[in-house]
């Protein structure tokens, strides 16, 4: 005899099947739309392996310090990630730090990862000190360094 848990799972599967059949018959969605709904949100392999360009922009007061405020990473013409400086910490006795929010996109331009990077910088280049995921799973490192002024 099956347990109550198994009975509930069977019942829910039956209900889902009936709803799916009803939607197909009434034309509420097609089989292609169903497959697209369950398609995983990831960057396809031919795009994930190649970042062709990272463009840095100066859209804030940070440009006076030689620090870009934004960056966009491209694979061909498709933007696959972007980042924005959200804070800077100036330490009088130690290295300065930049806080950057980064967002990675799927090939359908859906957010697949959002996180914060803290860069430690001096002598013209910032390197990653720590990363804090906010949502999603990071599948690769794109913004491994950040330009941080004239060396």
List its salient traits.
single chain, 151 residues, elongated
Give the biggest sheet. Answer: 7 strands, antiparallel
What is the general shape? elongated
Beta fraction of the residues? 35-45%
**Count the strands?**
7
Element-level helix/strand string: HHHEEEEEEE
Distance, first to last CA:
74 Å
| Share in helix | 10-25%
Spatial strand sequence of the major β-sheet: 1-2-3-4-5-6-7
Any low-confidence stretches, pLDDT <50, length ≥5?
38-47
Nearest-integer average pLDDT: 78
How big is the Rg? 23 Å
Number of helices: 3
* Number of structural units classed as domains: 2
SSE class:
alpha+beta
Describe the secondary-structure layout:
Elements: H1 4-26, H2 31-38, H3 45-48, E1 53-57, E2 70-75, E3 78-89, E4 96-105, E5 111-122, E6 124-136, E7 145-148
Antiparallel strand pairs: 1-2, 2-3, 3-4, 4-5, 5-6, 6-7
What would you say this structure looks like, in words?
- With 151 residues, the chain is α+β, with helices and mostly antiparallel strands.
- It folds into two domains: 35 residues, no CATH class; 104 residues, no CATH class.
- 23% of the residues lie in helices and 41% in strands.
- The protein has three helices and seven strands.
- A hairpin with an 8-residue loop joins strand 6 and strand 7.
- The longest helix has 23 residues.
- It starts with a helix and ends with a strand.
- About 7% of the residues have low confidence.
Give a nutshell description of this structure:
This protein has helices spanning 4-26, 31-38, 45-48; strands spanning 53-57, 70-75, 78-89, 96-105, 111-122, 124-136, 145-148. It is an alpha+beta fold and 151 residues long. It has a seven-stranded antiparallel sheet, with no helix packed on it.
């Amino acid at each position: 005899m099956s347990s109550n848990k198994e009975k509930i799972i069977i019942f829910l599967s039956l209900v889902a099947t009936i709803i799916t059949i009803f939607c197909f018959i009434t034309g509420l969605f097609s089989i292609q739309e169903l497959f697209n709904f369950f398609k995983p949100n990831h960057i396809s392999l031919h795009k994930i392996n190649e970042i062709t360009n990272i463009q840095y922009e100066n859209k804030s007061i940070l440009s006076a310090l030689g620090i870009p405020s934004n960056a966009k990473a491209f694979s061909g013409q498709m933007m696959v990630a972007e980042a924005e400086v959200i804070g800077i910490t100036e330490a009088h006795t130690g290295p300065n730090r930049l806080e950057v929010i980064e967002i990675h996109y799927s090939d359908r331009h859906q957010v697949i990862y959002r996180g914060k990077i803290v860069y430690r910088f001096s002598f013209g280049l910032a390197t990653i000190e720590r990363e804090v995921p906010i949502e999603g799973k990071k599948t690769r490192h794109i913004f491994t360094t950040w330009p941080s002024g004239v060396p």
